[in-house]
Amino acid sequence: MGIFSAEKKLGEAAAVDTIFGSKARFKGELVSAGSVNINGEFEGRIESKGEVIISRGSKIIGDVVAANITISGRVDGNILASQSLEITRSGRVNGDIAGGKIIIEEGSTYRGRVNVNAKQAEAEIVEIVEEKVAVPL
Question: 10, 33, 43, 99: which one has the fewest Cβ atoms less than 10 Å from its Cβ?
Answer without folding.
Answer: 10
